[in-house]
Automatic annotation (TrEMBL):
PANTHER family: CYTOCHROME P450, FAMILY 76, SUBFAMILY C, POLYPEPTIDE 5-RELATED (PTHR47950), GERANIOL 8-HYDROXYLASE-LIKE (PTHR47950:SF4). GO terms for cellular component: membrane. One of its GO terms (molecular function) is iron ion binding. The keyword Lipid metabolism does not apply. Its main location: membrane. It comes from Erythranthe guttata (Yellow monkey flower). This is Cytochrome P450. It is found in: Membrane. SUPFAM superfamilies: Cytochrome P450 (SSF48264). Keywords: Heme, Iron, Membrane, Metal-binding, Monooxygenase, Oxidoreductase, Transmembrane, Transmembrane helix. InterPro entries: Cyt_P450, Cyt_P450_sf.
Length: 220
């Protein structure tokens, strides 16, 4: 199959058909090199896929987090039952974010009506808007240095915020692991699983890759 978009000539055949065209905005913080969604099929992609398959999408993992999902849905119900005006968009986004963050980190990213909710909502909406905006650079790569629509610059800012947040959460978990006693309850989330993997002697998973895995799962 021969396809030409702008000045980009694409010839796909056999295994290459399983790859995706990598948008310029996904190059923010080199996310395209550490994202399961954007990596080409290869050893690194297979490693991330195996981690997600074995530690995220298993039946046991979904069942163990059922209580968290019910709790967030109950909070959504309570928000709409107190006879006050409700911003449906905010409630839906906050509920979705907290469902994701409790699964990944056992914490809530935001609370209804809080500044943190507004900031996180703005960041996620910004990334979604960028992802849905046609970018001239993807069709005319010669424009990369100019970034005429400013989409890459915006993506750098939003992705930087999220990666910083994930790094802070990871640092806090590592600190708590270092000072906690053996009687402290063990976290049952993806962060703990991945930190355990990193600490294994033959692990080839880095902390930087960890952040990009979180970003892939949060933005999806």
């Amino acid at each position: 199959m021969y396809l030409k978009l702008g000045t980009v000539q694409t010839i796909k055949h056999d295994q290459i058909c399983s790859d995706r065209t990598v948008a310029h905005t996904t190059h923010a913080a080199n996310h395209h090199k550490g994202s399961l969604a954007w990596l080409p099929v290869g050893n690194k992609w297979r490693k991330f896929r195996r981690i997600c398959k074995e530690h995220m999408f298993t039946v046991d993992k979904l069942q163990s987090s059922e209580g968290l999902r019910k709790e967030k849905l109950q909070q959504l119900h309570e928000c709409g039952s107190n006879r006050r005006v409700v911003d449906i968009e905010e409630v839906a986004i906050v509920t979705s974010l907290n469902l994701i963050s409790t699964t990944l980190f056992s914490i809530d990213f935001s609370r209804f009506g809080s500044d943190s909710a507004q900031e996180m909502k703005s960041t996620i909406k910004g990334l979604m808007t960028i992802a849905g905006t046609p970018n001239l650079v993807d069709y005319f790569p010669i424009l990369k240095l100019i970034d005429p629509q400013g989409l890459k610059s915006e993506s750098d800012a939003y992705v930087g915020k999220l990666l910083t947040t994930f790094d802070q959460i990871t640092s806090e978990r590592l600190r708590s692991m270092g000072v906690s006693s053996s009687d402290s309850p063990r976290k049952n989330d993806l962060l703990q699983v991945l930190l355990d993997l990193i600490q294994e002697r033959d692990s080839d998973l880095s902390r930087d890759e960890l952040k990009h895995l979180f970003l892939s799962n949060s933005s999806s």
